Each structure stands twice: as structure tokens, then as C-alpha cells.
Amino acid sequence: MNNFFKIFVFGFLFFLVGCSSEKKKAAPTVLLSEPQMVEMLTDVQIMEGIIGYKKNSNQQVEYLKNIGYDTLFAHYGINDSIFKLNVIYYNDVEPQVFMRILDSVETRLVKMKN
């Protein structure tokens, strides 16, 4: 479970980073704090788990994915671009902080599971 989770998280985040056409070295205009990133990435992982479950049970997930991300970003008062720029920033400029964020996300998800 632990290794699967890390592979899933890293794969998802590298996908987001890879989709970016340019990498920013300066902090984004809207920089999410470390606790905000932990909360948001925890919610993203929960949503991705639900989408994965629905997909594996042969259910249509595009609508769920679109509405899920729209709702998530609205809840945090940001959009997908701000989220992606923050992931890129923490990954490129603050990798130690980013690893700490990911560790915190994993800890929260394990606590929720138990």
C-alpha cells in the first residue's frame, strides 16, 4: 500500500508537471502555503481514488472528473492553472518542502483509512 500510494502520487504529480509547457522558477502569483497544499493534495488523492474505482467498475468518469475538479478548485478559491503552477514551483524550487508535503498527505490518508 505504501509503495503503491507513493507511485500513484508521484505519477499523478509528474503528469501535471509534464503537461506544463514552461517551468517557472519564480514563485507563482498565488502561492499556496504548505498546509494548503497538503489539504488540497489530500482531497485530490481522495477524488482520484473515487474516479479510479468508478473507472474500474466500467462507469463513465469524465463528467465525475470534470465536476470533481471544478468543485475542488472552487472550494479552495483557485483554478487548475494556479494548482499546476504551485505543483511545478514546489517540485522545481522547493523539492524538500514538496517531499514533506507528500509525506504529510500520505500520513493523512493513512489516518483516514484507519
Total domains, how many?
1
Structural class determined from secondary elements: mainly alpha
Kindly state the mean pLDDT as a whole number? Answer: 85
Beta-strand content = under 5%
The end-to-end distance, rounded to whole angstroms, is 13 Å
Number of helices: 5
Structural topology:
Layout: H1 2-18, H2 34-56, H3 62-76, H4 80-92, H5 95-113
Helix pairs in contact: 2-3, 2-5, 4-5
Describe the structure.
With 114 residues, the chain is mainly alpha-helical. The chain has one domain. 76% of the residues lie in helices and 0% in strands. The protein is built from five helices and no strands. It has helices spanning 2-18, 34-56, 62-76, 80-92, 95-113. Helix 2 (34-56) packs antiparallel against helix 3 and helix 4 crosses helix 5 (95-113). The model has no long low-confidence stretch (mean pLDDT 85).
